[in-house]
Amino acid sequence: MKTGDSGENFALVVGATGISGRALCRELAERGWRVAGLSRRAPAAPLDGVETVRADLTDVESVRSALAGLDLTHVFFTAWSRMATEAENILVNSAMVRHVLDVTGPSGHVRHVALVTGLKHYLGPFEAYATGETRDTPFHEEEPRLPAPNFYYAQEDELWKAAERYRFTWSVHRSHTIIGHAVGNAMNMGTTLAVQAALCRAEGRPFVFPGNEVQWNGVTDMTDAGLLARQMIWAATTGDLPSQAYNTANGDLFRWRWMWPRIAELLDVEPEGYLARPRPLEEQMSGAADTWRRLAEREHLAEPDITRVASWWHTDSDLNRPIECFTDMTRSRSAGFTDYVHTLSSFANLFDTLRRDRVIPS
After folding, report:
1. Is 161 a catalytic residue?
2. What is the per-residue pLDDT across 39-52, written as a single tens digit (0 to 9) for each?
3. Catalytic, out of 122, 152, 246, 274
4. pLDDT surpassing 60 at residue 109
């Protein structure tokens, strides 16, 4: 049996209710791992084979109490907390990583820690998202950090310090926009677009692309949550890998001018592409909360609170970047991770799941 696929491994998934954490919990459980899923709140639908652990990551004593008695071998950190400024992001999110590793590391049993970050490593923080100095596409892992404060860098610093102190290997996984299922997630383009389409269909209006001309015409890629999970497990269980960062994307490239009508077809709405100026979702969907609540009641949907299923601000940010964004996957491909996901199929599978779970109408 391959190392990492046996029951002797006990994984902590931090951020288990999020898009990447949820997919990772499922993947680990299916492989026979013992899994503890840590989150601040209880999951809406607990996953089979996953022990639920609740803690406030900003409080080290809360983390210590929650993890007492768990003999963990692997830690997968997929959580973050959005704050008002990047200075606050750095303070809070680095502390969250530090607290978990200072509680789990001293046992000496943790063999590997994997951290999920993203393309803000190359684009800069939300406060100056892709507007200041950025790296050229495709993004390469070995490029130096940008000369700007960034909570991803602070999280990496905490990881490296803990790895040296507690003697575990590590990996960082820089995903692009993640396609996956998790209600209540702060960054969820797939579900956001599905909710946009449901509202457009209910009101008889077109499905309008919210982004700018650069994103409409430029090359991009995305990351399936399942692929991210499989890359994290691969990095954690392949013994001869160095501790390093990996870009994480599906492997295909597309332009939104090609993808948008195909997503519209999957969601049964009439597409309308970029026309003259960006039309952000925060503008298009202003006042949509009451409409969604009525739609949810009429269609017996699972979540009537639109803020739990749509993150207009995040999709607007991604689709209004002033540069095209895609990543180089040579590092992980050369090391043996050759998984691939067709992005349109990833969207299609997500939309089927959302219909099945009554997140959007059938």
Report:
1. no
2. 987 766 677 899 99
3. 152
4. yes
312 confidence band (pLDDT: 50, 70, 90): very high
Whether the upstream peptide bond of residue 138 has omega within 30° of 0, thus cis, is yes
* Structural domain span for residue 165: 10-175
Residues listed for the chain = 362
DSSP conformational letter for 82: -
Q: Is 122 annotated as catalytic?
A: no
Task: Kindly report, residue by residue over 157-211, the tens digit of the pLDDT.
Answer: 999 999 999 999 999 999 999 999 988 877 899 999 999 999 999 999 999 999 9
The number of distinct structural domains making up the chain is 2
Residue 319 to residue 69: CA distance in whole angstroms: 45
CB 146, CB 135: distance < 8 Å: yes
Catalytic residue among 120, 122, 246, 274: 120
Token digits of residue 184:
């209540």
Vertex 220 angle, CA 214 and 223, to 5°: 140
φ/ψ (deg, to 5) at 314: -70, -45
Distance of alpha carbon 94 from alpha carbon 90, whole angstroms: 6
| Contact (Cβ atoms closer than 8 angstroms) between residue 55 and residue 62 | yes
In terms of domains, do 154 and 205 share one? no
Structural domain contains residue 261: yes
Query: Strand, coil or helix: what is 254?
Result: strand
- Give the phi and the psi of residue 14 in degrees, each rounded to 5: -90, 120
Are residues 299 and 158 part of one domain? no
**154 and 202 in one domain?**
no
Model confidence over 14-26: pLDDT tens digits?
A: 999 999 999 999 9
- Model-wide pTM > 0.90: yes
Q: What is the pLDDT of residues 50-102, one digit of tens each?
A: 999 999 999 999 999 999 999 999 999 999 998 999 999 999 999 999 999 99
Block residue for tokens 């070995």? 142
Contact 209, 216 (CB under 8 A): yes
